[in-house]
Amino acid sequence: xxxxxxxxxxxxxxxxxxxxxxxxxxxxxxxxxxxxxxxxxxxxxxxxxxxxxxxxxxxxxxxxxxxxxxxxxxxxxxxxxxxxxxxxxxxxxxxxxxxxxxxxxxxxxxxxxxxxxxxxxxxxxxxxxxxxxxxxxxxxxxxxxxxxxxxxxxxxxxxxxxxxxxxxxxxxxxxxxxxxxxxxxxxxxxxxxxxxxxxxxxxxxxxxxxxxxxxxxxxxxxxxxxxxxxxxxxxxxxxxxxxxxxxxxxxxxxxxxxxxxxxxxxxxxxxxxxxxxxxx
Length: 280
Description:
Number of strands: 14
Distance between the termini: 29 Å
Strand content: 35-45%
């Protein structure tokens, strides 16, 4: 469900120790049940959704900003960079991108690696999603009839099963759930304490680091992540600065035929302009 967030967070879960658990909030059983139902609906929807999409992806990270056009297929996803740091790629650079995509199309090993990576992300996301009802103490913050906003803080009685889940379970924040469909629309949170690596000897992640995920419905029963923002800072061994500073915004979604091949997707990307909407 949230692979981009959990992929960003995965490396934080190595030897995490020393997270504070001083919370007085009580568990609201009604709020936890809303989360439990939403969790199951999301798991069922993920299992049943086989749709493919083309979209525009604007990604900003440590290396700068890039704009990509993405096409999903049953054989994998193709991503073509069309802009970098506000500059449209030259014809020569775009040709190099097309050649890179053709290399992927013709290389089963690259496709297999992408498939393994995606499967690992999906497994991690499912594991984190299943932890939601028990990893946190929940309460209802607001309810306008259409969506309900639930607040969460770490549950001091929860024992994270993995190292990376210790970081996830140290978050506090809120989620917004669509009441009619029981779908998670927004999830945002922050680190409530410094997260220490090896009791702080090998580094720590700074309190106050934040993340936010936004999703919206693209078609009946089909929801996709449209924005993800992760901003976490810290220090590692030898005082090297580490952290995740990522902003990812997806837009201009168009459904792709279920039977479209990688070769057809590559040709689609080769012929389209930077703005997907301009190709309609």
